[in-house]
Design a protein that fits this description.
This protein is 32% helix and 30% strand. A 5-stranded antiparallel sheet has the order 3-2-4-1-5, with no helix packed on it. It is globular, with a radius of gyration of 11 Å. It is α+β, with helices and mostly antiparallel strands. The chain has 3 helices and 5 strands, in the order βαββαβαβ.
Length: 76
């Protein structure tokens, strides 16, 4: 399991992020505060507070491949 913080600033960012995560076969969740949603759900993502970075948790052996594909959204 790997976790990183991501920032989705625009609607276009959300679309690109979901498209990248949808190609990934493993489980990916986004959490903001006490809310957790499926990272492959556009509606779920829009229910989160996107004004600050949100936590992405990826559960799979090939998580590095997904993280490499979404590196533009990862913040420290």
């Amino acid at each position: 399991m790997k976790s990183v913080n991501i920032k989705l600033s625009t609607i276009e960012d959300v679309k690109k992020f979901v498209n990248a995560v949808t190609l990934y076969n493993g489980d990916a969740d986004l959490s903001s505060g006490r809310y957790v949603v499926d990272a492959k759900s556009i509606m779920g993502i829009f229910s989160l507070d996107l004004s600050s970075p949100i936590k992405l948790t990826v559960e799979s052996d090939n998580a590095d491949e997904l993280l490499n594909n979404i590196k533009a959204f990862i913040v420290e």
